[in-house]
## 1
Amino acid sequence: MYVQRLELVDFRSYEAVAVDLSAGTSVLVGPNGVGKTNLLEALGYVATLDSHRVATDAPLVRAGAAAAVIRCLVVHDGRELLVELEIVPGKANRARLGRSPVRRARDVLGALRMVLFAPEDLELVRGDPAFRRGYLDDLLVARQPRYAGVRADYDRVVKQRNALLRTAYLSRKTGGTRGGDLSTLDVWDTHLARHGAELLAGRLDLVNALGPFVAKAYDAVAAGRGAAGIAYRSGVEVGAGDRATLEQALLEALAAGRSSEVDRGVTLTGPHRDDLTLTLGTLPAKGYASHGESWSYALALRLAAYDLLRADGIEPVLALDDVFAELDAGRRERLAELVGGASQLLVTCAVPDDVPAALRGARYEVSEGTIRRAD
Ligand SMILES: Nc1ncnc2c1ncn2[C@@H]1O[C@H](COP(=O)(O)OP(=O)(O)OP(=O)(O)O)[C@@H](O)[C@H]1O
């Protein structure tokens, strides 16, 4: 799979830009702040409907504009597919596939599979559990796009259940008599357990499949200095990990935790509270790993995602944002060997000499608002 053409209108710093790309390696070169990452972010948005940098859409739209458009032509198995997204902050995205409108933006997921590694990924190791949950769920969707629906259903149930608990909590706190009715909570428990079990089963399967790839990738990146291990940490007893057992376990955990949820006015049980534990040797990576180890770990998580998708028979686009400047010469060469065979590899850098010679493919110069092929 590779992106043949990318067009942006009012996306981030770009008023209007178009670039033709090819399979193999492309290096995007330019001084700091000219918009290199913005290009990768746009492609990442098409692949996940999310930015790797911001939680809301407003910053993605060029300052002063009302909406942004990302259009990209993806070539997969010799067939071309045009994907178009219009981002209007505060509203649902509009999307087209092959020029036909689709009902929901998430119907485009799967059209472009991409793994993006960026400096922000340090948060995968050092940050809150939400970063690691996001990593797992994005990969789940990249492998099986139907999980986008599972995730959306689960998020909706948690939101509505939280609203109910919160209204009751506030009503009690203010001594009111209205809004304290929790009679529908049992129904929400059933929905939460059903959708939660599906999401949880998907994540558990994923972590099982991913573990060996993470260990191998860390070993390759860090040259044998420590063994990386991942484990899913759930608030419920996962047993054999099948959906029926998980659904039952979630229902029981919700029943057991109901009084504290009512006391606090929030849903405390379910996959939205789980985490992915990362270890190096016998120690947790979070809180123990050095900066370099954390960075190698984050890179290993992305490379493992890339390798797992390839093992599934999907050849995703691989993008490395500002990676080489962080690495010593040995690690640069090792990484170049690991990623050199990608069907499409997009690399950004401010200093071209940071990129190993083995990766000097097509070269693009990025300057304020423009991009041009330079080789
Ligand atoms: N919504 C927006 N409207 C206008 N400009 C924006 C918007 N969002 C970001 N920018 C501008 O985009 C630029 C950052 O672009 P980007 O992060 O792609 O830089 P970069 O080339 O990757 O830089 P570096 O090498 O430092 O990582 C900044 O100048 C920023 O002001």
## 2
Amino acid sequence: MTRSKRKGPRKKGRTGSPTTNPDDDRRDEPLQKSDMKNEKFDAYYRNQLAIDHDEWCTFLDVCREPLPSTFRISGSRETAAVLTSVVEKTYIPHLTGVVFEDQPIPAPLALPWYPNGLAWQLNVPKKALRRSPEFKKFHSFLVFETEVGNITRQEAVSMLPPLFLDVKPHHIVLDMCAAPGSKTSQLLESLHSSQSILESSIPPGLLIANDSDYKRTHLLIHQTARLPSPAFMVTNVDASIFPTLFLPPENTAESSGRKTRPSPLLFDRILCDVPCSGDGTIRKNVGIWKKWNPMDGNGLHALQLRILQRAMRMLRQGGKIVYSTCSLNPVENEAVVAEALRTVPGFELVDVSESLLPLVRRPGLTKWLPSVGRDLKYFETHEQYLASLSGGKGTARLARSHWPPAEELGLERCIRIYPHLQDTGGFFIAVFQHRRSTAAPREGKRTAEEEPEEPDVKKARVDEDEDVMMASVTEPSTSKCPEPGSPLVETASVQGAQKQKQQQTGGDYVFKEMPYTFVSPNDPIVENCKQQFSLAPDFPSSNVLVRNPAGEPARSLYLTNDLVRAVLSANDYKRIRIMTAGTKIFMRQEGGFGRREGGAEDGAETVPRFRLLSEGLPVVLPYINPKIILDTDIPTLRRLLETYYPLLTAFGEAFQRDVGNRPSGSHVVRFKAGGVDGALLTHDLVLPIWKSTSSVSLMIDKKAKR
Ligand SMILES: C[S@@+](CC[C@H](N)C(=O)[O-])C[C@H]1O[C@@H](n2cnc3c(N)ncnc32)[C@H](O)[C@@H]1O
């Protein structure tokens, strides 16, 4: 066995991460193929997965092979189309038939089930990728486009849940266990699917991405930063007790001016990509070969179930939930799905056998046998298991729901992806639909009768308490995945429950983030920004917010859409533990003061100057008066990219004149598409600049400049 020479303590867990996620980019230490075996894994799954001996051998062989790299073209629709065509027409012809060190190297392959050819698989040894002249060039292209956010590395199976969720721009979406955010990014792209390369049309819908791990919410924020969205929020709560969110009371004609009660917010789409034992990632996390134990999955069942049940109670009628894991274990998959269907009425599994057709899959299991202990003791029924515990008196670790249900629930509609089917990791997906009641709901309007069984907060609490009790016999005291092979923490999760309660009641419990506060629409700074950029009268000034309790525009101004505004104004930020909301659009320029329009002529009435941020520009652009945008060309862009603060005199006459006529401060420039001296701009590029007395600077970050 090959071991690294690293001394000192081993990394905690399979990946050192609190959970397993196919997209966590850490791999275990290398392991020889001959060491890739685990008798328990073999014995447990050989009979569970309903595949014959030969196929099981192929399954294991593929598990011993490294996982191919996969990536998704993820920019706006136009960028994606341009890049796909570049890959197909420019790179693929050069990468076909390449031989490296006498080995034929396969060309990149479009994943046949991913819509519009936007996802690719690369089965190339690292050495060839870095050293073969053909692949080296392609590698640089991938690295560059990944840096600027047009390409996202993501495991093939991890791309599936968002596809099955089918998010539209008007949907209200919750991603319950979202960090580090690969699927969140995909959901965000769907929410913004109608946006073009230059302008974001603010989607009417909403995406809340949540994770209970505070540190990991920062990964989530970082990962989603390349698609700034006024329709996006990040929260940091335990998904199994995700608080009911409210919308403000409406003053409608029907209520004849009377204030109605706040209404609970129901979701159209919910993703439950729950923490799991992660043995489907064995090709990448080879340490699983050494540490695998069925108790890892047994211990997570209760938490997974509570997260799914909570999602079901927050879904509107007609809405969809995708439940997914990267585990092969039926106890974490079909057993959770079955118990959720049994306990929350009104739901069914969607038959997705005709969706994403080229995807090779296996149906969900209807029979399985849970196993207990390090020596894999199997029990046909829960009763037998209970009887085995010191004459029936021991503490139960497994619940009845670990075993298959007695009733027919359509579990074969679940999807199992095995590594050997199409050279991927292992994965599990179930798509739930909340059945509509016979009183058909009207599209886009959520009325009381459309609400699922449980918008009643009091009832939800009772159910949650029951679930917490159930968790006490089955669940590790932490909500994170146990280290594979580690003994389960079998004590009651009383502390966990107390912590959750504190969190639910908004107690001060370590939540130190600043609140978002809406700025008065007539605030002089907002007014000044509006005047400076000639913003159209319909610019949503009432959706501008800042991050401090006083609502003081001291540093940054953020913009949300109406729905995010509604959620922020009707819910205590501490109760829902808001990490971010909306998009940063303007930022105070240090040392800059401007005279307020209509103020005293002598300049006595001044306000701090704010500049437009590049990440906020696509959101603000539709409101900017086109007349104030400075049109220029590629040589100007080149000069601005090459030099940090080029003097005005360094530019062509026209640009010098146009900029020279403007006051110093923040401005917007459009670089027209076209080609000059071998440089080609395939589309117009609109970017912010800062003009000082004698120089101009492009206000984008270093990475983007590169
Ligand atoms: C499988 S990972 C999610 C991967 C993510 N969906 C993606 O695509 O990048 C599971 C996540 O659940 C989080 N988690 C664990 N317990 C949780 C809980 N009770 N509530 C919310 N999140 C939880 C973990 O911190 C982890 O980030």
